[in-house]
Design brief:
Layout (H helix, E strand, L loop, with lengths): L1 E6 L2 E4 L4 E9 L6 E7 L6 E6 L6 E3 L7 E6 L4 E6 L8 E8 L11 E2 L3 E6 L1
Parallel strand pairs: 2-11
Antiparallel strand pairs: 1-3, 3-8, 4-5, 4-9, 5-6, 7-8, 9-10, 9-11
Amino acid sequence: QVQLVESGGGLVQAGGSLRLSCAASGRPVSSYAISWFRQAQGKEREFVGVVTWGGHSTDYADSVKGRFTISRDNAKNTVYLQMNSLKLEDTAVYYCAASRSGGRWSNNYDYWGQGTQVTVSS
């Protein structure tokens, strides 16, 4: 079992930055790909980005590419999502998830955090 806890969400003005953290406990997160997903009110959950278990490869949704960066510190069992140049449409609950296989499909992910709210204001 892997337990994931997100933190770092909050209210930020458009154009600002936030860094989300995903702290893992239980099994070492180093053997899992970790993704970030988000779900805006009234919309389906969508893929944001993923980092492979070794941290050498990342993939991002087109909507966040160039603005968001995922990194991981396996020694701290923590994955980060740095969000820059935030837009109103980035407002959502952000979830981190762990998978042995990774990818963009939420069905690939066995473990999920509880989510953290990010609200971008004008």
